[in-house]
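Re: the request from the purification team.
They wanted to know what the chain is likely to look like in 3D before they choose a buffer screen. I agreed to run a prediction and write the result into the notebook, where they can find it.
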Amino acid sequence: MVTGSIVLTVQCPSLSVIDRHSDGRPPVIVSGATTRMSFMTSISDTNAASDAATQPETPRISLQAVVLDTDDPKGLAEFYAALLGWEIEPPEDDWVTIVGGASGQLDFQLALNHKPPTWPDNSVPQQFHLDLHVDDLAEATAYAESLGARRATNGDHSPNFIVFLDPSGHPFCLCS
C-alpha cells in the first residue's frame, strides 16, 4: 500500500468567489484569504485500473460531518463550539453535534477507554487533524488556550501556524 499527502493551496485576490456546482451540491465560497486543503491518500496495489465501460456510474457522495472519538463528547463539543463560534445541537448520551451554518458540522462520539494520539511519537498514531484558519494567530492562540487547548510540545510550529492539542488530545492547527 502506498500512502501520501497532497496539499493544495489556493490564493484568491480580495474578491469572493462562489463556486456553484451544477450537480446540486451546496455552493463553496472562497474569499480573499489563502485556502489550504490537505488530503491523505492510500492506494492499494490491487486497485488496478480497469476498463471505463465496466465501471459503475459514480453516485453523488458528499461529506456530512467529521466525527471525533472522545471519552467526553459534551466537553469536547463545548470546546469546539466555543472555539469556532458554532451551536451545540441537543445531545444524546454518547453523541453530540455542533453546527456552523454553511460551514458544516462536527460530531463527537463516546469512545470508552479513548487513548489520545501521542503525535508526533507514533505509539498511538494520529488519525487526522483539523487545520483552522484564523485572521490573527496571536489572538486566536490566546483564545484557544483560554478554552483548554494546549500547545503540542513536539509539534511543528512556524510563523504561520501552531499545533495544539484539544482537551481530548487530538492535534489541531491554527493557521494564518
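For the purification team: Residues 116-176 form a domain with the 2,3-Dihydroxybiphenyl 1,2-Dioxygenase; domain 1 fold (CATH 3.10.180.10).
Please add any questions underneath this entry.
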